Amino acid sequence: ERDKYENNNVAGVVTGLAWTRVGGDILFIESILSKGKGTLSITGNLGKVMKESATIAMEYIKSNAKTFGINPEVFDNYNVHIHVPEGATPKDGPSAGITMLTSLVSLFTQRKVKKNLAMTGEITLRGKVLPVGGIKEKILAAKRARIKEIILCDENKRDINEINPEYLKGLEFHYVSDMSEVVNIALTNTKVKNAKTL
Amino acid sequence: ERDKYENNNVAGVVTGLAWTRVGGDILFIESILSKGKGTLSITGNLGKVMKESATIAMEYIKSNAKTFGINPEVFDNYNVHIHVPEGATPKDGPSAGITMLTSLVSLFTQRKVKKNLAMTGEITLRGKVLPVGGIKEKILAAKRARIKEIILCDENKRDINEINPEYLKGLEFHYVSDMSEVVNIALTNTKVKNAKTL
Amino acid sequence: ERDKYENNNVAGVVTGLAWTRVGGDILFIESILSKGKGTLSITGNLGKVMKESATIAMEYIKSNAKTFGINPEVFDNYNVHIHVPEGATPKDGPSAGITMLTSLVSLFTQRKVKKNLAMTGEITLRGKVLPVGGIKEKILAAKRARIKEIILCDENKRDINEINPEYLKGLEFHYVSDMSEVVNIALTNTKVKNAKTL
Amino acid sequence: ERDKYENNNVAGVVTGLAWTRVGGDILFIESILSKGKGTLSITGNLGKVMKESATIAMEYIKSNAKTFGINPEVFDNYNVHIHVPEGATPKDGPSAGITMLTSLVSLFTQRKVKKNLAMTGEITLRGKVLPVGGIKEKILAAKRARIKEIILCDENKRDINEINPEYLKGLEFHYVSDMSEVVNIALTNTKVKNAKTL
Amino acid sequence: ERDKYENNNVAGVVTGLAWTRVGGDILFIESILSKGKGTLSITGNLGKVMKESATIAMEYIKSNAKTFGINPEVFDNYNVHIHVPEGATPKDGPSAGITMLTSLVSLFTQRKVKKNLAMTGEITLRGKVLPVGGIKEKILAAKRARIKEIILCDENKRDINEINPEYLKGLEFHYVSDMSEVVNIALTNTKVKNAKTL
Amino acid sequence: ERDKYENNNVAGVVTGLAWTRVGGDILFIESILSKGKGTLSITGNLGKVMKESATIAMEYIKSNAKTFGINPEVFDNYNVHIHVPEGATPKDGPSAGITMLTSLVSLFTQRKVKKNLAMTGEITLRGKVLPVGGIKEKILAAKRARIKEIILCDENKRDINEINPEYLKGLEFHYVSDMSEVVNIALTNTKVKNAKTL
Ligand SMILES: [Ca+2]
Ligand SMILES: [Ca+2]
Ligand SMILES: [Ca+2]
Ligand SMILES: [Ca+2]
Ligand SMILES: [Ca+2]
Ligand SMILES: [Ca+2]
Ligand SMILES: [Ca+2]
Ligand SMILES: [Ca+2]
Ligand SMILES: [Ca+2]
Ligand SMILES: [Ca+2]
Ligand SMILES: [Ca+2]
Ligand SMILES: [Ca+2]
Q: Ligand nearest C175 Cα, by number?
């Protein structure tokens, strides 16, 4: 499955970690732009809380456009669509927040996403990263998918400390408390191939 | 039933494979344009996930109009209606995604759809094709309907390998991982009779 | 009851055949125009699938206006209201599709509907007529209501063949596979009295 | 209760007959105009079918404005509000249709409603009056409320014939099949006091 | 609790009487204006019927602006918000109708509300006041809250007559049948302090 | 957890006290502005009553902009987003009202919020503060989070009086009855660092 996804030539595709009824799993956040009037659409069989995460991420970016080097006119002239593949699986909860934010910043800046990186964490409107549950199962799923680096809220460090170090071999952890850290770690300074001019 | 449908003189009609409570079945995706302001309507007694597939297909085409040779002004000046016949049967799930995409590309380009071809697969916003379930039942239904060629996600090849080869006689399979492959296989380079000028 | 309805001096009133919990029944599709901005409203205690039939009929007509001799500006300057009387009875299913289409074509062309005619069949977006259920009960109801001619999908012919010919005396059947056939059989080339100029 | 309501100095107030869980009852349809953009609002704790009756009545009037002597510009420049008092009682069903229509015609023409008159009947889009249920209970309620004249669908005559004539003393019945008859019976040719100029 | 509320220096705050699962209670209707385009918003954990009362009150005032001395342009240039405090308690039913109307007239005219006054009654679109239930419990709640005057529908007089006169000491009742009476009793001819110029 | 939040360098972040199924807790209200047309969006897995609190707070501020020193044009030119973090927890009830109001006033004035302060109370449209439940549990949660000052409705003083004074050591209480008092206590007269010019 990883072969299919590890390609990071497209902006807006970021790997998240999810906790499902059958254990941990990786998921992908995709986002695209199309000429329009600034609407935000969200698909992927998502529940209310996960849709709210997308709204929060979008509003945070609008409110901090300058920080991210985004021309605010983009928000009025393009529609944004965020999708989480595998529509057969219902998905919910706040833990994809930082993944959605990273996807949108990549989309609006056309910056390349770092390879072999996954993340999980709730976002807040003022740019904080909050801890989330299911860390152990998510880490195991990340390993199976050959992820090398993982971004977590620093308050989730205690969950990592409780995992047998054997299982953590080959994984590098980044503990963050603020969205700016997430973006700095996850996005390279290179633009994607055929980057759109926005 | 096939007699009625195999005619491919109209753009936007594509054959899909569905998995229902009573086994596999073929279904048809129809789409039409009418002068308007760019709305998308979707009918056919569809569930939430299947409606989302239509949205994803539409957004993907809008975002990649140039690749498909579509003038983006069409999106503002026409309404699109996607319908899945047999309204008495509730339908849901992501597996009609690539069929909907193919229907819409045919509609916007007025290219003829290949005859005796069916397909099943989920689509993602960045143009990937994902595997779907119920492959065995769908293949049997395709044979009954005298389909000759079938498009599947390459990750569904393992499901085909588990089927008794006897049942697969007379069927040609195309395994794909990207939407561009689907469109290349499914759409001919000939326009339909009385093609609309868009 | 027939006395009341057989009058065909008004455009847009067409007789359909319904299958209800208490057996077959006839129903009437009425549609009217009023000056407006092109909205479509639908009443009559209808379920989701039956409302979708109205949308499909309307979209089909918009997309094929020229074929029906309809000036497409009408769609922008008039509101359409479709109603199915007897609001106390919940109604659903796709089988009123061709009746709704016929009603709308009569309305937009002001052509008179043939007398003593009833019909039942699902419509598709590309103009096909699909078979529907409950044929035996519907035919008996048509006879009780002194209907003389009935339009059915040709795939429903097998259902008629299973009925005791005794019951079919005095009924003429038209088997169709395409909407254009329905319209040709059901609408006369005469305009209704006091036809509106659209 | 009648004292309060028999006053017919205001346009748009018409007496209907309802059939509730606790027997027959009279109800009042009130409608008013306010400067606006043509919206229709409906209150009174009404179910879906009863709200549809209001829509049907409104659409019928719009489509036949000339017949009723109504300037169609009124529909664009005024909002209409229809209300059925006694909000604590849920109300539904199609039988208030002709009462709503009469209320709206009185409102738009400012013609006075006849005194001591009540009515019950479903309306259709092309102006037909359909029979309704609960006739016996409704008649008894009308008598208790000192109603003198009652408008019914002519197909409800059979229900009246089954009632002990003793109970019908002092009641005059009007049997109708078309809305124009309802309006002719119910509305006087006098305008209400302080009639609005529309 | 009364201390907090008896202040009538603000326009639009009127005391109503409610009937809840735990007996009678007083409630307050508050309304405010803000510059806008004429929207009406309603909060306070209210059910459908109580929200309809707010709509009816608003429409009645719009339709009778002249009578109340209100410049109708106000309706287009201000948004109205009606709120019923104590959001933890669900509230429903039509009996706050006359209280809402009084609140809105006070708001639009900036007239002071009479002190120590409470009211309960349904309103109709043509300005009638209808009787409501729970009178005994409401009266006792009013006494506990040191209310001195109460407005009721004249048809509720019979409910007062059934109450032990002992309980009614110190209460003055106003029986009304029309909204104009309510407004005349409840609103003084003095404007509130710092009255807004509308 | 407090370390993360006590920073008050950003406008619009205020600490509230909540009462959940597992006892008292602190929560944070965040709000941000982005260029727009004046919409209000609300997230955080909130129920109907809590969303209404946000609407009430917003309307109150709009109606009293001058008092708060806010240029009313801001309301037309910016969108407001209010969020309550920890999306996994459903939240409802009116007790965050004064916290939301304080957050919004801080946002629109860019005034700094006092440190180590928390609050709980319902708001009304005319600026009153109403008492709320769960005071004991909320106070204990505030202590655990090292809160130093707490704002409560003066009618909640009786709840504090019932708590063992031992538990209240190190806490200072402010009892209020009006929103203006809340704002005066909670907001400093200093602007936040990098205050936006609105
Ligand atoms: Ca997976
Ligand atoms: Ca930290
Ligand atoms: Ca089938
Ligand atoms: Ca592949
Ligand atoms: Ca019937
Ligand atoms: Ca055929
Ligand atoms: Ca009654
Ligand atoms: Ca008749
Ligand atoms: Ca109370
Ligand atoms: Ca009276
Ligand atoms: Ca917490
Ligand atoms: Ca006080």
A: 6
Counted residue by residue, chain B has a size of 198
pLDDT interval class at D74 (50, 70, 90): very high
Extents of the domains making up chain B? 2-191
The answer to whether C93 faces chain D, any CB pair under 8 Å, is no
Q: Which letter, b or e, does each residue of B133-147 get, where b requires 16 or more Cβ atoms within 10 Å of its Cβ? A: ebbbbbbbbbbebeb
Residue among B24, B105, B93 nearest B69 (CA) = B105
How far the first Cα of chain B sits from its last, in Å, is 32
Query: Length of chain A, please?
Result: 198
- Please give the backbone phi and psi of residue F119, each rounded to the nearest 5 degrees, phi first: -155, 160
Average pLDDT over residues B161-188: 97
Alpha carbon distance D3, D7 (integer Å): 8
What is residue C6's predicted lDDT score, i.e. its pLDDT? Answer: 58
| Interface contact F62, partner E, CB < 8 A | yes
Tokens (6 digits) for C11: 């455009």
- The mean per-residue pLDDT over the stretch E12-20 comes to 94
Architecture of domain F2-186: 2-Layer Sandwich (3.30)
For residue B197, count other CB atoms closer than 10 A to its CB.
Answer: 5
| Digit-coded pLDDT (tens) for F33-84 | 999 999 999 999 999 999 999 999 999 999 999 999 999 999 999 999 999 9
Kindly state the DSSP code that residue A132 receives in the 8-state scheme: -
Strand partners, A16: A27, A119
What average pLDDT does this structure show over E76-94? 96
Q: Which chains reach chain C with 3 or more Cβ–Cβ distances below 8 angstroms?
A: B, D
* H/E run at residue E107: helix E97-109
The answer to whether residues A28 and A15 touch, using CB atoms and an 8 Å cutoff, is: yes
Are F133 and F110 in contact by the 8 Å Cβ rule? The answer is: no
Return the CATH number of B2-191, one of 3.90.550.10, 3.30.230.10, 3.40.710.10, 3.40.50.2000.
3.30.230.10
Residues contacting residue C42 through CB under 8 Å, at least 6 positions apart: C51, C54, C81, C82, C83
C26-85 pLDDT, tens digit each = 999 999 999 999 999 999 999 999 999 999 999 999 999 999 999 999 999 999 999 999
**Among residues A27, A32, A36, which one has the least CA distance to residue A11?**
A32
Report how far apart, in Å, the C-alpha atoms of C128 and of each of C50, C57, C122, C125, D85 are.
17, 11, 8, 7, 48
Tell me the C-alpha distance between C59 and B79, whole Å: 9
Measure A175 CA to ligand 2 centroid, in angstroms. 8
Residues B35-82: pLDDT tens digits?
999 999 999 999 999 999 999 999 999 999 999 999 999 999 999 999
Q: Which two tokens stand for residue E81?
A: 């918000």
Where does chain F show beta strands of DSSP type E?
A: 13-20, 23-35, 40-43, 78-83, 111-113, 117-119, 122-123, 129-130, 149-153, 172-176, 187-191
**3-class state of residue C106 by DSSP:** helix
What residue type is F69 in one-letter code?
A: G
User: What are the structure tokens assigned to D107, written together?
Assistant: 């409102």
Residue count (chain C): 198
Contacts of D124 in chain C (CB under 8 A): 28, 30, 83, 85
Distance in angstroms (rounded) separating the CA atoms of residues E30 and E85: 8
Residue D114's SS3 state is: coil
CA of F1 to the centre of ligand 2 (A): 9
Q: Do E55 and D44 touch (CB under 8 A)?
A: no
Residues F28 and F14 sit within 8 Å (Cβ to Cβ): yes
Nearest to B94 among A4, A32, A88 (CB): A88
Q: Which residues contact F124 (CB under 8 A, 6 or more apart)?
A: E28, E30, E83, E85, F56, F130
Interface of C with D in 28-47 (CB under 8 A): 28, 30-35, 41, 43-45
